[in-house]
Amino acid sequence: MERIFSGAQPTGNLHLGNYLGAIRNWVTLQKDFECIFCVVDLHAITVWQNPQELRSNIRELAASMIASGVDPEKHVLFNQSQVSAHAELAWIFNCVARLGWLNRMTQFKEKAGKHRENASLGLYAYPSLMAADILAYKATHVPVGEDQKQHLELTRDIAAKFNNDFEVDFFPQPEPLILGPATRVMSLRDGTKKMSKSDSSDMSRINMTDDADTLAKKIRKAKTDAEPLPSEAAGLEGRPEAKNLITIYAALTDIPVADILAEHGGTQFSGFKQALTDVVVEKLAPITSEMTRLKADNAYIDATLAKGADRADAIAQPILREVKEIVGFLNR
Ligand code: AMP
Ligand code: TRP
């Protein structure tokens, strides 16, 4: 059976990269797959989170997923810490994964930076928890942005080593689904850096909570080069900022890049930026207003996540039982 699992961290500043690279694809996949979507709060605390803010960010992320079109009735939406199978299976995977594998993870290197010795043990073991998220449900497909590809490969390695060590054919090899024209949305201030919730400049990203005026200002001030827009896609090479803005426009409108350039090629950025602002506002405004409505209703969000957690638990528990059996633990 084909089953989707994906997750996002409740660390605030949900941005257009998260939407185009992940959540929007989740919404589309709901038509063809059984889907499990998770607010990964255990992953969030691998770096310090203020408890009050964390609670609010968990609710906000759930609200934005629902506002974007995730259906918590037909599919499963919950927060990770309410389903204990994630942490339990992650421990077992910590004993399957090798130090050498984790040492290669580029996201750890980026996040730990120069202060490696001071990073949490959890940040280092992050990919092993991610493997547990996916494999606790025997998920077969995992939609993510490009930055998560390496973690997915590690998940496949852990699944294979587990099967091999215990001589079973238990875990599937989950496939990454890197979908859509905008798998890597870049910063508005620097077209060579990805748009990120941790960038210190808020002008670098389009937040899902930005109002129309803020969106217009950010796009107007977005970095560009001095040349007019090219008339063909090949002309975008070596022009990362231009490429990024065109890619965002293409992704939001579903218009091919070639058609956009046929219309705007040869013109200055100012006109195109106005057109882009109109598109961004048109597409995000309904989501933002629905998000605001849902955010005011904590009771609904909490009840929805609790119900999702029950359903997730019902799928993961029998799988975890079997894992314990395979490993040689006693089940009660
Ligand atoms: P995170 O917010 O880091 O938990 O990421 C949630 C999802 O958004 C993951 O599938 C990421 O791959 C995706 N994502 C994050 N940043 C970007 C970006 N700049 N462009 C495209 N996808 C992204
Ligand atoms: N590591 C992912 C990110 O930062 C979030 C995540 C955690 C995830 N567990 C997952 C994504 C399982 C897909 C599947 O974007």
Automatic annotation (TrEMBL):
Ranges in coiled-coil conformation: none
Motif position, 'HIGH' region: 10-18
Transmembrane annotation, as ranges: none
Major enzyme class: ligase
Main location group: cytoplasm
Enzyme Commission number(s) from the entry: 6.1.1.2
Localization in the cell: Cytoplasm
An annotated Gene Ontology molecular function: ATP binding
Described function: Catalyzes the attachment of tryptophan to tRNA(Trp).
Family listed: Belongs to the class-I aminoacyl-tRNA synthetase family.
Protein name per UniProt: Tryptophan--tRNA ligase
